[in-house]
Every structure is written in C-alpha cells, then in structure tokens.
Specification:
The chain has helices at 2-33, 61-65, 93-105, 125-134, 139-146, 151-158, 164-176, and strands at residues 47-51, 72-76, 109-115, 186-191, 198-202. By secondary structure, it is of the alpha/beta class. The chain folds into three domains: 1-35; 41-120 and 160-202, Beta-carbonic Anhydrase, Chain A (3-Layer(aba) Sandwich), CATH 3.40.1050.10; 124-156, no CATH class. A five-stranded mixed β-sheet has the order 2-1-3-4-5, with helices on one face. 23% of the residues are buried. The structure holds zinc ion. Zinc ion binds at residues 52, 54, 79, 115, 118-120.
Length: 206
C-alpha cells in the first residue's frame, strides 16, 4: 500500500506540473487574444443556477441555457445536490453561497439543474471505499470517526442518489425551506448531458 501511495504521489505530481504549465501557456495565449468587457458582479438576470461539476457541462451548459457572461451566478456541487446529512436546516456551503447571491448580489430566482448520467447516481460503495484506500484514506476509520454508521452512510455523505429527477425535486425543497433564505422562485430542471435538452421537473409558483 505504501509503495502504491508513493507511486501515485510521484505520478500525480508529474501530471500536475504538466497540466499547470499547459494551463499557464493557455492563459498567456488568452491574454494576448482576448480583451474582456468590464461588467458588474451583480447578475443581469438576477438568477442563480445550481448545477453539477461534471466535465461534460463545460462549454455546453451556459449556451444550452442561453446564458452569457454576467447573466447569472453559477454554483456547482457534485450532483447539483446537497448531501443527505447536510439537508437538515441546510446551513451548508451551497446555502451560504445562495445567501450571498441573494442578499449581496440581487439574485431573485434560483434554478437547480441536475443532469442525466450523473456520476453520483451510479456510485458503487466498494469502488468508493477502494479508491479511498488506494489514496491512503481508511474508509472504516473515517466512518467511525465521523459517525457515518456504515458504508451506506459514507455513500450518503458524498451525496449519492438513485433518481436524478427525485434528487432535483428534493434539492429544490431543501433550498425553498432553508431558514437562511427568503421566499423566492426555485425551479428544478434536468439537462440531457448528451443533447443539452432541458426538462422542467419542478416549476416554481410565482
Ligand atoms: Zn453530475
């Protein structure tokens, strides 16, 4: 296990150096060719969009919603969700960010946009615990220390769900009922990751 960890660290460092250099080179190119317009940080559409971290959403998500730079604040969590242990009273980081967007940036409408084929809808507990062990984290020790109960508790902690439509509806409900947030329209949608088609699964009553 120790040898595997050392290999992973060395290999990961090499890849990170290459990636960092690649990104810095891209940034130089970007600065040479692009001049960004100066715009305000308050979103023009008074909209906050919550979505997933899935890499397939890059360069696809905003055009699919017709959103341009400055239109909306965008919040991403794994699964576009709040994990089960964090839902009660919901004082977590997503709610904190929405509070900032609402109270400080003028957001007045929220859309939660899950997506099909989400990685969090297909988590194998054994895969998760095996990956943790390979990277030097003991799942059993963590479960005991954090009071997660068992492997299912660990999977709930990471935010796994089985039905994206149901999960979007539940996340909408958590946001709507958070004591930290005012009553605002909160919609729930699912985007097809292969086509970009949006489906409304929970429309807010205005
Ligand atoms: Zn996802």
């Amino acid at each position: 296990m120790l040898a595997l960890n050392m290999f992973l660290r060395k290999d990961t460092c090499r890849i990170m150096d290459e990636l960092l250099n690649e990104i810095l080179a891209s940034n130089e190119q970007f600065l040479r060719t692009t001049h960004l317009a100066l715009i305000d940080h308050a979103p023009r559409k008074h909209l906050a969009v919550v979505t997933c971290m899935d890499c397939r959403l890059l360069e696809m998500f905003e055009p699919a919603l017709g959103l341009k730079r400055g239109d909306a604040v965008e919040l991403r969590t794994a699964g576009a969700t709040i994990s089960q242990p964090e839902r009660e009273r919901a004082a977590n980081d997503l709610i904190r960010s929405l509070a900032g967007a609402i109270y400080l940036l003028g957001v007045r409408e929220v859309m939660v946009v899950g997506h099909t084929q989400c990685g969090l809808s297909r988590i194998e507990p054994a895969t998760l615990s095996g990956s943790m062990q390979a990277l030097g984290i003991d799942p059993d020790g963590l479960i005991e220390h954090e009071g997660l109960g068992n492997l299912d508790g660990l999977v709930r902690w990471i935010g796994a769900f089985s039905d994206i439509h149901l999960n979007v509806k539940e996340t909408v409900q958590v946001i709507r009922s958070s004591p930290y947030l005012p009553k605002l329209p909160v919609h729930g949608l699912v985007i097809d990751i292969t086509t970009g088609k949006l489906e409304v699964v929970e429309a807010a009553n205005h």
